[in-house]
Amino acid sequence: MPISRRDFYKLALGSAVGLAVLKNSSTALAQGISPKKPLPYGAGQPGETDGGLPPQGAVSSVEDFEYQIKYQRAFEAVLWNMPAVAIYSFRRAAFENLGLKDNDIIAYSEPATPHLEAITANSTTPYITAFTDLQKGPVVLELPPAGADGSLYGQIVDAWQFTIADVGPAGLDGGKGGNSC
C-alpha cells in the first residue's frame, strides 16, 4: 500500500513522540532529586559523583522537568530517524515517480538542488544512486576501474546512511574495479 510523503513524516514524528512519552523517567527523578528543591550536596563536598553536580542550593531552571525530558527525547528521536527517512524518500520517489525498481541505477546529470528535496544532499556532488532489497537475496555490485576518462568515488550505505564500504580509488577496490557482494 503506497504511503504519501506527508503521511510518512506524520508517522515518523508520531513514532518519535510516542517513544518519548513512553520513556518518561529521568536520571534526576530516578535518584529522587526534585528539580524544585535545592540539591542536598554540591561540588567538592562529600557524596559528590565523579561527573559533578550543581553547587549546593542550585535549583532547576526548567519549570516542567518531565515535559522538557519528553520534548528532548522526541527531538532526538526525530534527528536519529532523519537518515532513514532521507533514504526511504529517495527510494520511494525513484520507484513511484521514475518507475525504477531494485538494482536500477540513477545517475543525476548535475549536482543536487533544493528541488531534489533530499534532506542530506549537498550541492557540489553529482550523485549516482541505486537501491536494492537484500531480503530478495544477495547482490553483486560491479565496479568500473578508474582511468583517464574518470573515476567513481563513493560509498555503499545502509538504510541509516551508515557506510558499509567505500568504493573507487580511496575504497576497497583501490580504483582497480571489480565485484563486491
TrEMBL record:
Signal peptide positions (record): 1-30
Keywords assigned by UniProt, alphabetized: Signal
Superkingdom as given in the UniProt entry: Bacteria
Positions of the DUF1254 domain: 107-178
Classification via Pfam families: DUF1254
PANTHER family assigned: BLL3101 PROTEIN, SIGNAL PEPTIDE PROTEIN
Protein name as catalogued: DUF1254 domain-containing protein
Provenance organism: Buttiauxella selenatireducens
